[in-house]
Amino acid sequence: MTLEGPLLDPTAERQAASRPRLPRPSSLDGLTVAVLDISKPRGDVFLDRLAERLDERGIAVRRYRKPTVARLAPLEVQQAIVDECDIVVEGLAD
Q: pTM for this structure?
């Protein structure tokens, strides 16, 4: 599935901010992937398997976790992802 158009960010604005999508990398080789657990039940199961599969392919993975699903990731977690990783995968599950 390919998503087209801008990404709408509904957080804290009276009107959703429109942001252009960043281009996808052609390969994950040489990149570091952030795996963000948003603290939904069983999300860690999915992300554990994803991290395992990426590791099998020699792709660097860094794990992060939000303390609760109900809030944004703390700024220090957001900043660590920006500083340490090239792309991020956020896991949703139940």
A: 0.75
